[in-house]
Design brief:
This protein is an alpha/beta fold and 353 residues long. It is 27% helix and 23% strand. It is built from 9 helices and 21 strands. The chain has helices at 46-49, 76-89, 105-115, 139-151, 240-247, 269-280, 302-310, 320-333, 337-345, and strands at residues 2-6, 17-22, 29-32, 37-40, 59-64, 95-99, 116-117, 123-126, 153-154, 157-158, 163-167, 170-173, 178-179, 188-189, 197-199, 203-205, 220-221, 229-233, 254-259, 284-289, 313-314. The strands form 6 sheets. Strands 1-5-2-6-8-11-12-15-16 form a 9-stranded mixed β-sheet, with helices on both faces. Strand 15 and strand 16 form a beta hairpin. The longest helix has 14 residues, at 76-89. The relative contact order is 0.12. Bound molecules: aspartic acid. The site of aspartic acid (ASP) has 10 residues, from loops. Aspartic acid is lined by residues 25-26, 70-72, 101-103, 127, 129.
Amino acid sequence: MKTIKIKTKADGKDDVKVLVIYTGGTLGMVYDAKMDNLVPFDFAQIPDNLPEMARLDFEISVLTFDKLLDSSNMNPETWVMLAKIIEENYANYDSFVILHGTDTMAYTASALSYLLENLHKPVIFTGAQLPIGVARTDAKENFITALEIASAQTNNRPIISEVCIYFNSVLLRGNRARKHESVQFNAFESENYPVLAEAGIKIEYNKPYLKHYDSEATLKVHQYLDENVVILKLFPGITEKVVRNILEIKGLRGVVLETFGSGNAPTVDWFLKLMKEFVEKGIIIFNVSQCNGGRVTQGRYQTSQYLQEIGVVSGADITTEAAITKLMFALGQSVDIQEVKKMLKHSIAGEIS
Ligand code: ASP
């Protein structure tokens, strides 16, 4: 991995230092005529496309992944690698901006929010819907404003001290965000948590909703994520064969069960028996709603009462992205089922309320 320093207006004295980690994604892509598709390009070319960076008054260094990734190829190993890069550079930088493809950005941001315990510096993810070389690109505004947010301080303290996604004028808590739009510029939303900041003429921070800054906090980076998990999305007509085959996957430890509405599932005998059988075998079932907004309330309807009784864990208002990564994280921390269930129910990094 190589790190380059970008020329800015910083004078090398008390300047804020931002480390940009370039992982890939559309933001840094160029059109390859031979292949007739978009391919990642070298970050060294970005200052040519973004001369505005020279006017910023903080230091910027850029660390580029050896192999740039379309975010569809992100995985837990890369999430841990990102967490370790932040750990290694934590003492030398005031904040971090991660350039990442939009497709799985919400998963990576969620995973990092758990892996980086006691974070007290900004980690801001951003990307773009259009490559930086295209005239109507959203990459410039997204990137420059993410840098501004990452460098923002009051009384020598960062305003943001958590993992966020900045996109199309809004700053969202990373583990509350999800990609909901693949064509328009407003790619991300956070239905169950207010926006943390809005960028207009000024950047207005939504102070009551920001994570509290803790000067005593010492960063602790976790490294274990258990991949023996699955997302099972219910649909009317799902068969016993399908559900059984999924639950019988060798080594499976946890399931995010995407249910209807406020956490409801079919009440047919075979489904209830299967759920009970596998919960008793020690599989953790985490109930998350297919709705973008609202919350799972097990027991509100008869169709979720039984799930509550047999020990399915309610995901309350968590997103699927935050839930699957949380399940990997919690299973990576403990082999004790009760302990894992306890972790799932409580907020680790503001992902659930
Ligand atoms: N496929 C791209 C990615 O997620 C899309 C993007 O960057 O917006 O890497």
